[in-house]
Amino acid sequence: MKTTELLECLKIKQVIGHLPNQIKSIHHDSRNVQNKSLFVCISGFTVDGHDYYRDALKKGARVIVANRSLTIDLEKNALIIVPDTIKALAKLANTFYHFPSNKLNIFGVTGTNGKTTVTSLIHDMLRKLNQKTAVAGTNGMLINKHYFQTANTTCDVLTNQQLLHRAYQEGVDHVIMEVSSQGLSQGRLSGINFDVAVFTNLSQDHLDYHHTMENYGYAKGILFAQLGNDMTSPKYAVLNCDDPWWKTYNYFTSAEAITYSIYTDAIFRATNINYHTDTTEFTLQSPEGKHLIQSNLLGEFNVYNTLAALASLYVKGYSITTLVPLLRGMSTIKGRMERINVEAPVTIYIDYAHTPDAIEKCVHAVRSSKNSEQQLIMVVGTGGERDKEKRPLMGEKASQADTVILTINDPRNEDSNKILTDMEKGMLHNNYSLIPDRKQAIKQAIQLSKPGDIIVIAGKGRENYQIIGDKKYPHSDASLAIEQVKITYPD
Ligand SMILES: Nc1ncnc2c1ncn2[C@@H]1O[C@H](COP(=O)(O)OP(=O)(O)O)[C@@H](O)[C@H]1O
Ligand SMILES: [Mg+2]
User: According to its UniProt record, which protein family does this protein belong to (predicted)?
Assistant: First the structure.
């Protein structure tokens, strides 16, 4: 792209040195820099790009964008000083890739829990309707059938624009993005023109990063503020009005609010819910009237997720009558209350619950479908070097199961016993044991079971590793459970 054309997007800037005619690419990670490129110095959470501009120059960057003066050879290169490099990168990336989000229909899903489930539901329904889609989640973006791996749930502002550009080039119509609070607060979504913003719920998590629930809640609010005040294109905020934060987000945006609820009056509402071991049924009240919903997704939390997905597609013109039959054939989301196929008289679910609220919802989901004879045995683990305040609360919520086994889930460099005793502080009853080794914990849960019982292994879902120290070791909750079931229930 012509350098002068690209730089027009920055109003306030000081340009020093020699500008090249063309810029071939934009970077913020010096390791990826290519020839004839522009490098933006970003002060990140752990590293400061201003320390790497020399590496970038060596690799062929010709223009450096920084927030202060730097020593560079101005005969051959240019330095551009801007007040805020993060905002500058968002504008440069958007301009360089020709504003891809304006040409795509973009759904953003935020909330403490349920993001992956809601994005998957929207994505799967659109696919069944033969739409071209891309979905961005915990590990990357799936564009049509091609997977691009990224480092975080919400990747950086540049990668976001690159992937959106790619999606546009591949003919994608709809992009569904999981939007994390960290991503929002670090400006990684800035410049993305969302069409529909979805709020699932807000409960305690990530306080190591945000410090207070207010900060955490407001960080999520950025998504709704970002829907903007431009009334020329229709924008929608899909809000769970059983969570009090919905009012704040409604206040943050001028977009039309589409509410959903189980317990109060809302535009999309679920009533008469029936929970079974493998299915859930409810009556949907929507602007198109009443429909019976049958779904393979279990628990009340998935009723919320289903309402959110249906409302999001409805506002984009899909009729509820078309969507309802699609839900019937939908398989469960991998690792989210996923029933493991075992030939045994017990029911085993693996689940990704790793917040107090998710644990509570998980216990509730099983309690709603089981009979009084059946015991709920729950394996619960939490990660090391992450939000420690949630640990006793996770224990407290897990206490509602009949038997609880507290274990680790990626201890990293923390002492496993310390993690377990932190969770133990919240336990309300004497119905638990502490087994640091996750494999042993799963083994014990199955050994303790009696025919008819229900075992939930929470925290990892389908993740295929365990982080101990700085190393990732292969691990699979599902395989360990299947192995142990064969031993405990040989016939
Ligand atoms: N709407 C919800 N409310 C509360 N808990 C939920 C909800 N949806 C899912 N969960 C719980 O959170 C876990 C993670 O769900 P997921 O959809 O992966 O959320 P996220 O992507 O936000 O982490 C699930 O395994 C389940 O235990
Ligand atoms: Mg997720």
Answer: Belongs to the MurCDEF family. MurE subfamily.
